Pantothenate synthetase (Bombella saccharophila), 554 residues
Amino acid sequence: MELCTTIQAIRQARAALGTVGFVPTMGFLHEGHLSLVRQARAENDAVIVSIFVNPIQFGSAEDLSTYPRALERDVALLQQEGVACVFAPDVAELYPEGFVTQMSLGGVAAALEGTSRPGHFAGVAMVLTKLFNIIQPQRAYFGQKDAQQCAVVRRLVEDVNSPVEIITAPTWREADGLAGSSRNSRLTEEDRKRAPALYRALCHARDCVRAGEHRRTVLEAAMRSVLEAEGLTDIDYAMIVNPETFHTEGEIIPPHALALLAVRVGAVRLIDNMPLL
Amino acid sequence: MELCTTIQAIRQARAALGTVGFVPTMGFLHEGHLSLVRQARAENDAVIVSIFVNPIQFGSAEDLSTYPRALERDVALLQQEGVACVFAPDVAELYPEGFVTQMSLGGVAAALEGTSRPGHFAGVAMVLTKLFNIIQPQRAYFGQKDAQQCAVVRRLVEDVNSPVEIITAPTWREADGLAGSSRNSRLTEEDRKRAPALYRALCHARDCVRAGEHRRTVLEAAMRSVLEAEGLTDIDYAMIVNPETFHTEGEIIPPHALALLAVRVGAVRLIDNMPLL
């Protein structure tokens, strides 16, 4: 496996590969990432993984500085998974002095995370535009845990006619239902025990829908009550949207309904989601 | 030669070619375009030319609706030049319903045309991002006549790490010095006679610099006086900038000086430029 830190090096390494499946990450890898890597390996000649904590998608300097990192461990994990190249540039390699271009997205990028984290998706769109141009993969892999990001990336790729095929893989979960996230490592022991309430709240909404409840306000309140019973009251959003548009108008109509949560658990903001089928 | 109107068709046609030189145009081709095509042919296995009047780079609906078009004649010209494919999509093919992504650029895109035509370069950046993704050329060719556009495109390509090499070719001129432009076709007979005053004003500035004049205000006034002597008083700008930054501060320092004009000649807005060496 090759570890590249410059654009020139990864371009040269990529040129020797056939079809490439690309897994963009911010590092501190967990089983969710590795499940994407395994799928990418099965569907392409070779896999490239990027590890880059993209500063322009963070709204808060604090969140950026505390984002967990473990490059050596990540590289060892990826070597075991048969990855061909890891691309781990520093910030100046991707955003040198003089960098001015920005992207902006409306539509699916406007609500939820777009409201809670202004500029977040613009930063995601820019770094992916750059990484896709550098790596030129056939396919790129994203986890369903970041459901809105998946929708935004699909919109972006369609709008700019990128030749990259976007693959969304199911959310990887711990045994107690907690969705895999690098941020989980920052939970205290006690908060780790409370965190699966997100999953339980989503399952509860799904069960209510299966029992015939289609009123958005009732379902959203049902999710909040599960969270609040666990003492999780700092809720950014607990919403049900149309997964194509991320709009929230009117009564929900399964299967066109996706429940999404963003909740602060102690010092850590977690997100999760589930289709209501 | 193949004429493609859909993204699917041009992608399929492109896949059968080796290295590709790409000449993006808005059609109504003149000798300036054809000189780019010839250079592209000499430097690549095959040439693809796009013909697309990009609505999102026009500020005024009037300028867009009166932009000259002659697809049949253009296609015949390109066939004579040995072009492999022409890509001439309609507006809905590149901007279907639901399109939301925007690009914005600062730096070299902020001044001059960026001020006179808000949104112009954002529109140029978007259509080129799309066309580069669709056509995946090795090289793309632009005329020095659109000097600021060349600087913006270089900045864009660097910022998004596009693998496309940007080639700038010298401005093609009529015998009397008028720079080749599709908009020249909209000049009345009388205005056509006055239009070479832009070239003469630029030459005058260059001659003043060669005679030792380095004061920006004097040189800019000298250009204006040549234009005004021809009755051309509707001057958007007559400026000298640093060609790397497009900034205008301080005394000019050849060879880091580029004189630029945007002048309305009758109903037609013309631009031209010349390095002051």
